């Protein structure tokens, strides 16, 4: 093998090693860039709410009667952009469940579902318009702009009927009190990081009655506990 061939082989090997090193460097830089720009979203609540039974609905402490907000925080290292909150509920199971909560089986408490609207007692709710919520961006950490999401109002109204039912059973000392549960609601959160990579997280939100009682005016009161967990897929 002459000198020219040896030099050519060495040059080719050096070029190959340089190319491999460049690829490794690019991959490492991408890995580092992703590590410092990955958002991680969490849905948080107050852990519990005090509720008071008013004339025809339950009043949630610090909230509107049917609009209950949860906080959305970003504990990651980069902002989440183009955020989409998608609420998911087994509607058939939800409807069949709340139909059990008519305190008098011979009477209807005003439930009706038609043309995208759900009526529960004295309230009517646009189901389709509440299925998705759009948020432009969720910054890292706690900023002066608090990001919130709103649980669909028909779900909160249905839970109010559940509290009516459980409260009545408690007054009548019914043993079924410990076995009745209310269906959870799910939300899928889709978003992007600043590199355009798409991320999806799914959460299970369950409302549980922690305590029932009466206030000084003999009005029914309740303490509702929120149980929020991420569903790993």
Task: Give an overview of the whole structure.
By secondary structure, the protein is α+β, with helices and mostly antiparallel strands. It contains three helices and 13 strands; from the N terminus they run H-E-E-E-E-E-H-E-E-E-E-E-H-E-E-E. It has helices spanning 3-35, 91-98, 153-171; strands at 41-44, 48-53, 58-60, 68-74, 80-88, 112-114, 117-120, 123-126, 132-138, 148-151, 185-192, 198-214, 220-231. The strands form three sheets. Strands 3-2-13-12-11-5-9 form a seven-stranded antiparallel β-sheet, with helices on one face.
Give the DSSP E fraction (strand runs of 2 or more residues): 35-45%
Number of helices: 3
Please give the number of β-strands. Answer: 13
Sheet with the most strands? 7 strands, antiparallel
* Spatial order of strands in the largest sheet: 3-2-13-12-11-5-9
Task: Report the uncertain regions.
Answer: none
Helix content: 25-40%
Shape call: elongated
Residue-averaged pLDDT, rounded?
79
Elements, N to C (H/E)? HEEEEEHEEEEEHEEE
Structural class by secondary-structure content = alpha+beta
Determine Rg (CA atoms, Å): 27 Å
CA-CA gap between termini: 59 Å
């Amino acid at each position: 093998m002459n000198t020219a061939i040896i030099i050519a082989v060495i040059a080719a090997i050096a070029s190959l090693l340089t190319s491999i090193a460049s690829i490794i460097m690019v991959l490492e830089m991408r890995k580092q860039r992703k590590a410092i720009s990955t958002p991680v979203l969490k849905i948080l609540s107050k852990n519990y709410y005090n509720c008071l039974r008013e004339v025809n609905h339950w009043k949630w402490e610090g909230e509107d009667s049917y609009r209950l907000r949860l906080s959305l925080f970003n504990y990651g290292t980069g902002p989440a952009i183009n955020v989409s909150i998608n609420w998911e509920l087994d509607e058939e199971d939800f409807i069949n469940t709340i139909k059990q909560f008519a305190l008098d089986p011979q009477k209807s408490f005003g439930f009706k579902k038609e043309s995208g609207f759900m009526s529960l007692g004295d309230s009517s709710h646009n189901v389709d318009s509440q299925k998705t919520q759009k948020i432009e961006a969720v910054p890292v950490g706690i900023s002066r702009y608090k990001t919130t999401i709103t649980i669909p109002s028909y779900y909160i109204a249905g839970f109010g009927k559940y509290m009516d039912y459980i409260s009545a059973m408690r007054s009548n000392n019914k043993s079924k009190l410990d076995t009745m549960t209310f269906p959870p609601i799910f939300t899928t959160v889709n978003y992007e990081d600043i590199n355009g990579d798409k991320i999806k997280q799914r959460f299970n939100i369950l409302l549980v009655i922690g305590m029932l009682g009466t206030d000084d005016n003999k009005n029914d009161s309740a303490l509702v506990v929120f149980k929020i967990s991420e569903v790993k897929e």
